[in-house]
Structure formats: C-alpha cells, structure tokens
Amino acid sequence: MYDSFFQSYIDQWSFRPIAVEDATLSVLAEYKNEVRVYSAEKLLSFILKYLKKCAEDFIGDFVKDAVISVPTCFNHLQRQSIKEAAALAGLNVLRIISSTNAAALAYNFNNQKDENKKETNVLVFDLGGGALGVSILTVGDTCAVESVAGNPHLGGEDFDNLLVDHCVVEFKRQYKKDIVSNPRAFRQLRNACEEAKCRLSSSTETNIKIDSLLDGIDFCRKISRQSSL
C-alpha cells in the first residue's frame, strides 16, 4: 500500500484504499448508502460472478470451470489473487493465461477451417485498461510464444486520468472549487471522461458535459483527438 507507484494513483480513485488488521489491502466503497469494506478479491469476485451468470444464460447450462486471461505483466501473487476471486465466484480455474496468448488462441481457432493455413508469425498488441502487452507468436497447428514485452503502468485508464486532471484544473480555474474534494462529483467526472474517450474512437471531437457537477454548477468542455492536455 505504501509503494510509490500505488501512491501515485490514489488521487485518481473515487474510493479509499485501506489496510485491514491482517494487512490485506481493501477499499471503502459506498453501497446502498452504506460504507462497506471490501478486499480487492471480493470486488473482483462480484464481476466474475456476473460474467459467470451471463455465460450460463447464454449457453443454458451451469458453468463450473474457467480459463482466465490476465495482463502479461501479472506476477505470481497477482495471478493467485485472481484465482482466489474466482473461487469466491464459484469458479474452478483450470488455467491462468496471458491476455495476448488468449487473443492468439482465438485467432488460431477462428482460422482452423482454412485448409491452406501456413505457419505464420502473429503480433498481438493488447492495450488494456491498466497495462500494455505485446506478444509475438508462431501460429500454426499450435501456438508458440516467441517473445513477450509490455508496460504494466500504461493503459486506457492513463488516458482517462489525463482527461480528468485537465477537467479538474479547468473547473478549479473557472469556479475556484475543487472537484477532488467531493467523491460523488469526482466519480461523475471520471465516468464522463471515460465515455468521452470512447466516443473519440469514432468521432474527431466530443463534449464532456455534466449537469450540476458540483454545488449546482454545470460543466462542459470540448475535446478532440488533437487536444493538448
């Protein structure tokens, strides 16, 4: 919890991390107007449980086993935490694989019907929410990993953070009020910035617009792909 990288991200979160009695990292989160303490594994188990239900609804059968992909940069402890979260969600983890390898396997599976398929080299570029992973694989009848590289501190959330920081500064400059001091307003702003980032995938410009963001003040900011933040 006192790691310098961890500390650098605390101000970007709309929740508060804490260390409980057994030194387990947990977070304080508000649910149904009640503040509760959740471990990271418990929070992840909620997501996995939801995905499990979605899969069961889709196939019309019970799901027990799972192969879970994780960022290439995940270490042993991080992978173990994923397994613990899966167990809480009622899943038996058959294997943990890197997300780039999972993408290569999917690519190979989708091309199995090609009778003239030759062994090829495939580059998998995976820019996720929190990490970047790049793998080079030889794909044929099997998949062989030739090289793996990545940056565990570069992902879509970094783009979100740039937008959020920019809007916080602009709001403070215009209205002399600090959004960061209000968790609800900060969470609204972060969600709006993420949505705006996604819209820029198909549009050259968009607006970050939030009614009554803080103390009844409406906020609107135009951004474009060329914006210098």
From TrEMBL:
The lineage of its organism: Eukaryota, Metazoa, Ecdysozoa, Nematoda, Chromadorea. Coiled coil: none annotated. This is Heat shock protein 70. GO terms for biological process: response to stress. It comes from Panagrolaimus superbus. Belongs to the heat shock protein 70 family. GO terms for molecular function: ATP binding; ATP-dependent protein folding chaperone. Signal peptide: none annotated. Gene3D superfamilies: 3.30.30.30, 3.30.420.40, Actin, Chain A, domain 4 (3.90.640.10). Keywords: ATP-binding, Nucleotide-binding.
